[in-house]
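pinned: reference chain
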Amino acid sequence: MSGSEIHQRQESYTRGEMPVLAYLLMGGNIGDVPQSFENAIQYLNDSDINTIRKSKIYQSEPWGFETDSIFYNQLLEVKTTLNPFELLDELLRIELELGRVRKNSMEYTSRIIDLDILFYSEEIIKHQRLTIPHPRISERMFALKPLAELIPNYQHPELNKSIKALFAECKDEGKVWAI
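pinned: its structure tokens
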């Protein structure tokens, strides 16, 4: 399956025997977020989602809504044999296990933990449950900064630009800093 193929059917995925690299962004702004990240990493490693590398932890201003709480983000490079939909289901289960409460609203809100799939190998997936690459990577400095730390030369499979180029072009003026 090449990265240029666009998959729209969940049924076309089966569990792979060969592990693939995926990039996950953890975020949150409620409670002891760095501890929530450590707990999430432990759950991931117990779930056939092996952490290979992780970025520094970054703090940032809220994006998309107003709150007094600073956000934390950290990028994980993981290896897994789960297909992208199984990976999504596992991330949602871990969020729930760590106390995430999802509201039925599409509005951005404060959260204990958020686990997003930014990239899954070089796949392009457009499905009602899942879009990969994450559709707003190029608009969010809080995602691009940790990506630029770990994989600056990675080529975005849909935009055909490196992370380094997307970082340089990003118009997001929100402050993002490593801790």
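why pinned: The CA atoms of residues 72 and 139 lie 17 Å apart. Helices lie at 33-45, 84-97, 141-150, 163-169.
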